[in-house]
Amino acid sequence: MALSKDKKKAIVEELKADFKGAASVVFAAFQGVTAGETTSFRRALKEKGVKYKVVKKSLLSLALAGGPFSGEAPVLAGQISIAFGNDPLAPAREVFLVGRKLEGRVSILGGIFEGRFVGKKEMEEIALIPPKEILLGQFVHIIHSPIRRLAAVLSEVVKIKS
């Protein structure tokens, strides 16, 4: 069923608003994903604060045209969906994990990060950055490690001297 011009304009305006309010946007291709799988990973994405929409390429290109994004938009082939959210890393990470879970039937094509278009490779690298909590834990471990070693050395010195 064809969409009316008014409905298309509303979708384009909605996409522009989504892009404006999002910290990052991921463009993903999907092929052979069942309705049940789509519903389950939409719920999983929603729990992580990531919104997911399936969009027509023509409407997506209209929404991106003339936008404040620098660089060249990635080539979008196949059926396209977008994931976006307030966390700059979560959309890429969650779509990447879904793609691994669904054995490559969902794949990252590129996205928008820090106001510029990025390609597939860079968006996948962003997806591999651990969550903030894990990074903070690693930082604390790095800072704590030299202190722990110093304490162990001093303990051994005390044992030798006594």
Q: Can you give a write-up of this model?
A:
It is built from six helices and five strands; from the N terminus they run αβαβαβαββαα. With 162 residues, it is an alpha+beta fold. The protein has two domains: 125 residues, Alpha-Beta Plaits, CATH 3.30.70; 33 residues. The longest helix is centred in the C-terminal third of the chain and has 30 residues. It is elongated and about 90 Å long. The mean pLDDT is 87.
Note the overall shape.
elongated
CATH architecture classification of the largest domain: 2-Layer Sandwich
Distance between the termini: 87 Å
CATH class of the largest domain: Alpha Beta
N to C succession of SSEs = HEHEHEHEEHH
Strands of the largest sheet, in order across it?
Answer: 2-3-1-4-5
Question: What structural category do the secondary elements indicate?
Answer: alpha+beta
Helix content: 40-55%
Task: Give the low-pLDDT segments.
Answer: none
Got a strand count?
A: 5
Can you give the mean pLDDT? 87
Profile the largest sheet.
5 strands, antiparallel
> How many DSSP helices?
6
**The CATH topology of the largest domain is what?**
Alpha-Beta Plaits
Strand proportion:
15-25%
Looking at this structure, what is the CATH superfamily of the largest domain?
Ribosomal protein L10, N-terminal RNA-binding domain
Number of domain modules: 2
Radius of gyration: 22 Å
How are the secondary structure elements laid out?
Layout: H1 5-21, E1 24-30, H2 35-47, E2 50-55, H3 57-64, E3 80-85, H4 90-101, E4 106-113, E5 116-119, H5 120-127, H6 132-161
Antiparallel strand pairs: 1-3, 1-4, 2-3, 4-5
